[in-house]
Amino acid sequence: MDIQFFSQFDQDSFLTMEAPVSVIEKFLSRSQHTFVPVVDDGGSVFGVVTALDVINFLSSGGNAQGTKAWEICSHNIVRCRPETPISEMAKMMLENRVHHLLVEDSDEIIGVVSSFDLLRHISKAH
């Protein structure tokens, strides 16, 4: 797979478990991302929060200042490698009912592939 295909993440793109939802909301609104990994104190991925998670939380009247990332994150973390074929990525998303895959290389998260990334890539190929 072309390394430029997916959104690259670095450690500054991760949020801690204790980050309030208000911080997640600001991060997502200021970045090009629709997804943020949530890490524990050791730096391991604990879960993920999507823009849709935040929208659902806020629209249900959730307290953005008093609720932490660990309280709203999903634990259904699906990973792939940079060389994973696009067709396999699509299959993984469908089977796991997710819209994002963490991209790992040497057990380090280097990026994320979204369903929109797949759609963009496929539409360019046709």
3D structure, described in words:
The strands form two sheets. A four-stranded mixed beta sheet has the order 1-7-6-5. Helix content is 36%, strand content 24%. The protein is an alpha/beta fold. The protein is globular. A hairpin with a 5-residue loop joins β3 and β4 (45-50). The chain has one domain (7-125): CBS-domain (Roll). It contains five helices and seven strands.
Number of helices: 5
**What would you call the shape?**
globular
Strand content: 15-25%
Could you give the count of β-strands? 7
> What CATH architecture do you see?
Roll
Roughly how much helix do the residues carry, as a percent range? 25-40%
CATH-wise, what's the superfamily? CBS-domain
The major beta sheet can be summarized as:
4 strands, mixed
Report how far the terminal alpha carbons are from each other.
17 Å
CATH class: Alpha Beta
Structural class: alpha/beta
What is the rounded Rg? 15 Å
Mean pLDDT: 87
List low-confidence stretches: none
Using the coordinates shown, work out and report the CATH topology.
CBS-domain
Order of helix and strand elements from N to C terminus: EEHEEHHEHEEH
How would you summarize the topology of this molecule?
Elements: E1 7-8, E2 15-16, H1 21-30, E3 35-39, E4 45-50, H2 51-59, H3 69-72, E5 79-80, H4 86-96, E6 100-105, E7 108-114, H5 115-125
Parallel strand pairs: 2-3, 5-6
Antiparallel strand pairs: 1-7, 3-4, 6-7
In short:
36% of the residues lie in helices and 24% in strands.
Task: Note the main attributes of this structure.
126 residues, alpha/beta, CBS-domain, four-stranded mixed sheet, globular
